[in-house]
């Protein structure tokens, strides 16, 4: 199984990279700045590439069984660039229907109660205004993949995701946000990565959105 990982030096991406390598997968991590990734592993290739350059994508993805997109509308990408990068991925992958793509998505499009998405709820009023644009563009990208003919999976995190401990324990949902007994929606970067890599080995959410929490 060959994985093409985009965004492997980010908060979530680096955990996905670690988990995939520990599971023995062959990973090609595409970096705009290869020097940002210092990991050494016999199963890791680090390639220079920019998914904002749509002409590079066909060559990058041609040998991949699974593409993991762990980019975000932050950390060097504007929301407009984030959207453009995903459009480029969709355009390239529509010519590769057997290649799977798993998108590290946003939580805003998950439902906090039946029929009510986080992004449409009063919770938005409590969030920093600068988060709103990112939440909305994540949801827009989900819509783009839903309308495409790609073999996509969109993985939404819990409302709160941060560095933590790899427990290997988690619960999954579909379009619903996962809450614990105390009413919190949370997961660590580490366990999110475990669940994403588990989805590669056991595909259960083809052309679907799914969610995670404790």
Overview of the structural elements:
With 214 residues, the protein is α/β, with parallel strands linked by helices. The protein has a single domain (2-213), classed as Rossmann fold. It is 29% helix and 24% strand. The strands form 3 sheets. Strands 3-2-1-4-5-8-12-10 form an 8-stranded mixed β-sheet, with helices on both faces. It has a two-stranded antiparallel ribbon with strand order 6-7. A hairpin with a 2-residue loop joins strand 6 and strand 7. Helix 1 packs across helix 5 and helix 3 (79-93) packs parallel to helix 4 (129-146).
Average pLDDT, to the nearest integer?
A: 96
How many structural domains can be distinguished in the coordinates?
1
Q: Which percent bin holds the helix content?
A: 25-40%
As laid out across the biggest beta sheet, the strand order is 3-2-1-4-5-8-12-10
Overall 3D shape: globular
List keywords for this structure.
about 210 residues, alpha/beta, Rossmann fold, eight-stranded mixed beta sheet, two-stranded antiparallel ribbon, 5 helices, about 25% strand
Concise structural overview:
By secondary structure, this protein is of the alpha/beta class.
Q: What topology does this entry show?
A:
Blueprint: E1 2-6, H1 11-22, E2 26-31, E3 44-48, H2 57-61, E4 66-69, H3 79-93, E5 100-104, E6 111-113, E7 116-117, H4 129-146, E8 151-156, E9 160-162, E10 171-173, E11 186-188, H5 189-201, E12 208-213
Parallel strand pairs: 1-2, 1-4, 2-3, 4-5, 5-8, 8-12, 9-11
Antiparallel strand pairs: 6-7, 10-12
Helix pairs in contact: 1-5, 3-4
